[in-house]
Amino acid sequence: MAISLQKGQRVDLTKSNPGLKKVMVGLGWDPVQNSGKKGGLLGALFGGGGGGPEIDCDASVIMLKDDKFVHKGDLVYFGNLKSSDKSITHTGDNLTGAGEGDDEQVFVNLDQVSPEYNKLVFIVNIYDAKRRNQDFGMIQNAFIRIQNDQNNEELIRFNLTDNHTGKTTLIPGELYRDGTEWKFAAVGEATSDVSLSEIVQKYS
């Protein structure tokens, strides 16, 4: 059974799961429903009558060296689906968040992550949020989970329950090294960064 985490919790990943080498990190979210009424503000935002844009959330991974982002190849997102050391693979962009389960997935070969990286920060941000006037108050059921890629066992799940109205970026969690082991931190923080480049600059 997966460990269900609360915001701020940290857990051993590899120490508690000997032999773990490859994981799938799943990130999911759903748009807030508009109570079945067409038209109006939410109807316009979610295509329920006004024809407005749906919210496009994007998952990304920032690879840090001594807690710093130093090279553009260390950002894995829909425009760069594989890390420069080939240890991380992003499966691609999901434009709507519709449906159950993971909306976007990232595969991490823990053994292959170059030793110079000490932390992998998982990010979800709203594409073009400022122009579309969208924020995470329009998103619900956000989560991050980690699954053993070798047997599909879910190991860790963190459901984000805070109200993030007015925020445009989420930092659901981090994988980080502790000696020879990997641990996971349930961060669950939100920021007002409106672009991926703006987020990355904070780690530079």
Automatic annotation (TrEMBL):
Signal peptide: none annotated. It comes from the Bacteria. Pfam families: TerD. Residues 1-203 form the TerD domain. InterPro entries: Stress/Tellurium_Resist, TerD. This is TerD family protein. It comes from Pontibacillus chungwhensis. The lineage of its organism: Bacteria, Bacillati, Bacillota, Bacilli, Bacillales.
